[in-house]
Design brief:
heterodimer, A: 0% strand, B: mainly alpha
Chain lengths: 199, 372
């Protein structure tokens, strides 16, 4: 076995171990902050797996989008509303856990079935694209994947406008769709000074 | 383009001459450039710290470090040794795991980014195809480390500093990436070596700064904001937040933050010089000099000379930018957080988008000047 193959196997085992253990940690840990940080670790390891598959552009995009944007925003949101209190106990938690475990195991068995029954078309190692993959991805994005690409961007735009509308609701005094005045009682903040209120 | 010096090839040839297999000689080669770059990064930090102390002293009409070595050049080493032997304190109510992991997560991506910094045609660790994109991706990991250390310190100033750092870093990453994209559009490649080669046609006249003046300024502002240098050092604003996310740190863990911020500053300066100031290129192309002197460009002496000239030019340009950054730090006041975010989102983002659009249009109209 050559040194390159050995390195590859070691990297693959370490990365997959980190992905599996980290993902289990994300869902099983009680502390939501730890879960969020572990999620970042899982995303990083997935990027490492892409790198092992010679998809360096996808790996970098994974780091940029999932670690640099999604995970940072998740952590950001958690810290902005960081209240040191335990989550409320949920009713009949046991049966809920059993149901979710069953669903997850079914999904897992389905995925394993697909994995085993599918004959994966392995790329010819002599024809591997390597560094050309960035160009190839660009070509696909602007030809046969143009419509999905544009639809995805429209979706993101809609999500962003929706978020702005939700966040800025307190400055609008009429409903956008009906034009009727909106009841602001619940949203408007009281302007009483805090110190007077305490006495 | 000539291939220039290829140290890796020559090194492997020598080792093969001793009867080693090519695989083994490759493994012996691998750590050498990494160590070299790591050492040069750390030495660069020492030089920058000394410059910072001396220039700030000059700006405030003081003398600055004087007794440690000639002109105080040993002062940064003394600083480093002091941090090395200081007690490592972890606050009792802090989260010790995250508290330790935070500084590491801040430093490692910065050092990894040196992978793509070229000092010559073959003088870089790895000419990866995604080049400059790798740096953008890696620099986006840093805010996680900052948030982590801000949270783990269990201190309100630390938490606020961490949140500010993340907000600032996210806001300025977008105009930064867009201005890099305009350069990439002209080069047709993400690789840093290709970006420099594309600017090497006519010496100083073909540098990207003339074709991308707006992009250059946007990139420099955003790079300063990403490095958290004044006028954008909001996350560690002393008057408001003690020292931001660094408040609870001492000893070597603080030194990691310190090292990280200075390595990041040098890295940003190097990248500005690569993207906009022609990288290792001399203001007059070396090919022309060789022709005037009637020397063949591939002669070994000329090759060694051009390689050393390339390294000197890259470092010189980078340190010129570091000098400007230090001068800015000691002469400008800090912006407020709302001004910072306004500048990022309402000014730099639209301008960088317009710059990208303009570059694309100019590329279509004048392909010979803006990369066909």
């Amino acid at each position: 076995m050559s040194i390159a193959v050995t390195t590859q196997i070691i990297c693959f085992s370490v990365l997959s171990l980190v992905v599996i253990v980290g993902a289990l940690g994300v869902i099983l840990l009680e502390s939501i902050v730890y879960s969020a940080f572990l999620l970042g670790g899982v995303f990083m390891s997935v990027a490492g797996l892409y790198l092992l598959l010679n998809a360096s552009f996808v790996a970098a995009a994974q780091v940029l989008v999932y670690v640099g944007a999604v995970n940072v925003l998740i952590i950001f949101a958690i810290m902005l509303v960081n209240k040191k209190e335990d989550l409320k106990p949920i009713e009949n938690i046991k049966s809920r856990r059993i149901i979710s475990t069953t669903i997850c195991l079914t999904l897992l068995s389905l995925l394993i079935r697909v994995d085993l029954s599918n004959t994966w078309g392995l790329a010819d190692p002599n024809k591997s694209i390597g560094e050309e993959s960035t160009i190839r991805i660009g070509e696909h994005l602007f030809s046969d994947y143009l419509l999905p690409f544009e639809v995805a961007s429209v979706l993101l735009l809609m999500a962003m406008i929706g978020a702005i509308v939700l966040a800025r609701r307190d400055v609008m005094n009429q409903d956008i769709s009906t034009g009727l005045p909106v009841d602001q009682e619940l949203i408007e903040k009281q302007n009483e000074p805090l110190l007077i209120k305490k006495n | 383009m000539n291939s220039g010096l290829d140290l890796e090839f020559s090194f492997n040839e020598i080792l093969k001459g001793f009867g080693l297999s090519s695989e083994l000689s490759h493994i012996i080669w691998l750590p050498l450039p990494m160590l070299l770059v790591l050492v040069s990064a750390v030495v660069g930090v020492l030089v920058t710290v000394w410059l910072e102390r001396k220039i700030s002293a000059a700006a405030q009409q003081r003398i600055g470090p004087e007794y440690a070595g000639a002109l105080g050049v040993l002062q940064p080493i003394a600083d480093g040794l002091k941090l090395l032997v200081k007690e490592d304190i972890i606050p009792a109510k802090a989260d010790s795991v995250l508290f330790t992991a935070g500084p590491i997560l801040v430093l490692v991506p910065v050092i990894l980014s040196w992978l793509i910094v070229p000092f010559g045609q073959n003088l870089l660790i790895s000419n990866v195809g995604i080049g400059i994109f790798l740096w953008i991706a890696l620099s986006s990991i840093q805010p996680i480390g900052l948030l982590m250390s801000g949270y783990a310190s269990n201190n309100k100033y630390s938490l606020l500093g961490g949140l500010r750092a993340a907000a600032q870093s996210i806001s300025y990453e977008i105009p930064l990436a867009l201005s890099v994209l305009a350069v990439v559009l002209m080069t047709n490649s993400l690789s840093t070596v290709d970006i420099v080669n594309q600017q090497s046609g006519a010496g100083i006249l073909s540098w990207n700064i003339w074709r991308q003046p707006v992009g250059f300024i946007i990139f420099w502002i955003c790079a300063l904001a990403e490095c958290e240098r004044l006028p954008f050092d909001l996350p560690e604003a002393e008057e408001e937040l003690v020292a931001g996310y660094q408040t609870e740190y001492a000893g070597m863990k603080f030194a990691l933050f310190y090292l990280g911020s200075y390595i990041n500053l040098i890295l940003s300066a190097l990248l500005v010089s690569i993207l906009y100031l022609g990288g290792w290129g001399f203001p007059i192309p070396v090919e022309i000099i060789a022709k005037v002197l009637n020397l063949p460009i591939n002669a070994p002496v000329i090759q060694v000379f051009t390689a050393s000239l390339g390294i000197i030019m890259t470092v010189l340009k980078a340190y010129l930018l570091v000098f400007i950054a230090i001068l800015l730090r000691w002469t400008t006041p800090r912006v407020r957080i709302d001004q910072l975010l306004d500048l990022g989102w309402k000014f730099l983002l639209p301008i960088s988008l317009a710059n990208l659009l303009l570059t694309a249009g100019l590329k279509l109209a004048f392909p010979q000047f803006f990369g066909g």
